[in-house]
Amino acid sequence: MLDEAGLEDAIRHYAGGFTERTGIEVELEIAPRLGRMKPHAELALFRVVQESLTNIQRHSGSLKAKIRTERGPGKFTLEISDKGSGISGSLRRRNGKTLFGFGVGIPSMHERVALIGGQLDIESSGGGTTVRVTIPADD
C-alpha cells in the first residue's frame, strides 16, 4: 500500500488495523495536501510510525495515541504521541546521556531518520511520550 497509495493512506490503514488489534484509539491529524515523498523517505517514516505505536502498546499503558503530520516550507514533521506513563527516569538518563532502553527499536528509528537527512527527537515525562521526526521536504 505504501508504494502505491503513499504515506498518508498507509498510515490511515495501519492505524485502523492497530486500533482493531490493540484497542488503542489512534487519532490522526494529517496535513492537507501531504503529497508524495521519495520512496525511501516514506518507508523510513512509516517504520517510525510502526515502531512508535508498538512502543505505545508495549510500554506506555495509554489507551490513546495521536499521529500528526505537518508539511511546511522546506520541512516535513511527523509526531507520534501518547498520554501514557512516559519513559522511566532510569532509562532516560545515565551518566548525563539520554538513553531510551536497551532495545533495537529506538536506535533503529534514529538510524532510519538519519539516512534520510532528518532528525528524531523523543520527549518523555510522566504525562506521556512524543516521538518527533523532522526531515527536509521537497517543495
What's a quick, concise take on this entry?
With 139 residues, the protein is α+β, with helices and mostly antiparallel strands. The protein is built from five helices and seven strands. Strand 2 and strand 3 form a beta hairpin.
H and E order = HHEHEEHEEHEE
Find the count of extended strands (DSSP E, 2+ residues): 7
Strand content: 25-35%
Strand order of the largest sheet: 1-2-3-7-6
Distance between the termini: 24 Å
Radius of gyration (CA) equals 15 Å
Number of helices: 5
Question: Can you walk through the features of this model?
Answer:
The protein has 139 residues and is an alpha+beta fold. It has helices at residues 2-5, 7-22, 39-60, 89-92, 105-115, and strands at residues 25-29, 64-72, 75-82, 93-94, 97-98, 119-125, 128-136. Strands 1-2-3-7-6 form a five-stranded mixed β-sheet. Helix 2 (7-22) packs parallel to helix 3 (39-60) and helix 3 runs antiparallel to helix 5 (105-115). The protein starts with a helix and ends with a strand.
Annotation keywords:
7 strands; alpha+beta; 139 residues; 41% helix; five-stranded mixed β-sheet
List the helices and strands and how they pair.
Blueprint: H1 2-5, H2 7-22, E1 25-29, H3 39-60, E2 64-72, E3 75-82, H4 89-92, E4 93-94, E5 97-98, H5 105-115, E6 119-125, E7 128-136
Parallel strand pairs: 1-2
Antiparallel strand pairs: 2-3, 3-7, 4-5, 6-7
Helix pairs in contact: 2-3, 3-5
